[in-house]
Amino acid sequence: MIVLALALSALATIAVQAIAIVTLPPADYGLFAAAYLVSGLFCSFGLSIVCEPWSRGGRREAWPSVGAAAGALALLSVPASAAIAVFLGDAIAAVAITIAVAATTYRFCGRFHFAAVGAQRWVIPADAAALAVTVGSWAALAPHVDALAAVALAWASGSVASALLMPHPAAPTIRRSRHWTAVHRRDIRSLLADSTLLDLGAIALPLGLAPLLGPSDFGLYRALSSLAVPVRLVLLPIRPLIGGRPATWHVTVRALTAIGASAIALGLTAGACLAAISAGGLFSGSTLFDAASRYGLLISVYIAVTFVGTYFYMVSRAHASGRALLVLRLVQLISAIAFQLVGLALAGLTGALVGATLAAAVQAVSVVGAAWRSRAAVTGRVLEPVT
Predict the structure, then answer these.
(1) Nearest to 220 by CA among 210, 205, 230
(2) Which UniProt keywords apply (predicted)?
(3) What is the pLDDT of residues 114-141, one digit of tens each?
(4) Are 243 and 317 in contact (CB under 8 A)?
(5) With 60 as the cut, is the pLDDT of residue 335 above it?
């Protein structure tokens, strides 16, 4: 049952991104990637405001209260996603993406909750619906509408179908939202401060580079992150389990060896797949894949270090002190900005890609280093305050 849940979650996560990267030309993919970044931003807010405060707190509310908080956040995403969607130049795609971001935010929080409490009877049908409806609606729409609109409608349809299969929440009223933030204020404050710094580097910086790169190069630049989807496929479904284990469990020699081997295996697999695609001429009409094949080694390294950094970031979010999170995130934010801006200035798109890879390596080294230094701590926290 757990294996089935993980497989469905992985496929549901990758479906819309895989369709986009295979079917959209670079300029359209750049527009889609900008909208997808907004979705990522609100899922990040969902973790900081809804999911992890609930998980870290001594009092765990039932789904109606959690769902109300998730619903309120989803409603807040509407104006933000609409502001980005208007630049798509396609009314159908703009409306669909606005709906998709809101439904994805709600579904993301709901899946975290039900996976954490072991309620697979809600997780599996929702993931199956997201996968089936996304792929089915795209297949039905692609011959009849613009490629970008087909992707946007498929994303919206799959996310809405999945969200509707979850139990009904309480109404997301202002009173319930205020109560939620009052109960979880301390955790929300520390987690939101950390995630804001993360989002500045992972979301705001790429969006800031978009006008400098232009739509086509921005699409290729974001393809690097999209090709790291295997990391999210492996780690996101088990994030509640990673956070639920004692922090010291993750920094044993056995655990570190397994994590490192998994990262290397993912990186080598991605590189081999890109080489095979390039050699076989598969997707040869896609500039995204043509460009990706030229950066095979870089992408392999990026995926490997991203796996390590993401894993230990999940550990830190569950166990670290607020000060430790802040210090580490500042280091990572500064390196992300510096490496990517300098790389862009020196070598354009290639420099930006190299800078993104170096920034991911800094994140991995910083979180693993902090975890290793604190391996003997008796507090059960992986990351202790860095002084």
Answers:
(1) 210
(2) Membrane, Transmembrane, Transmembrane helix
(3) 988 888 888 899 999 999 999 999 999 9
(4) yes
(5) yes
The pLDDT of residue 240: 76
Q: For residues 280 and 162, what is the distance between their CA atoms, to the nearest angstrom?
A: 36
Half-sphere exposure of 240 (CA within 13 A, CB side): 19
From CA 333, how far away is CA 107, in angstroms rounded?
28
pLDDT (average), residues 333-347: 94
Measured CA to CA, the distance from residue 87 to residue 367 in angstroms comes to: 37
Distance separating alpha carbons of residues 225 and 208, to the nearest angstrom: 16
Question: What residue spans define the domains of the chain?
Answer: 2-183, 229-373
DSSP state, residue 281: T
* Residue type present at position 154: A
- Report yes or no on whether pTM surpasses 0.70: yes
C-alpha distances (whole Å) from 211 to each of 29, 31, 34, 93, 116 are 14, 11, 11, 21, 40
- Find out whether 270 and 230 touch, Cβ atoms under 8 Å: yes
Q: Which residue has the higher pLDDT, 295 or 130?
A: 130
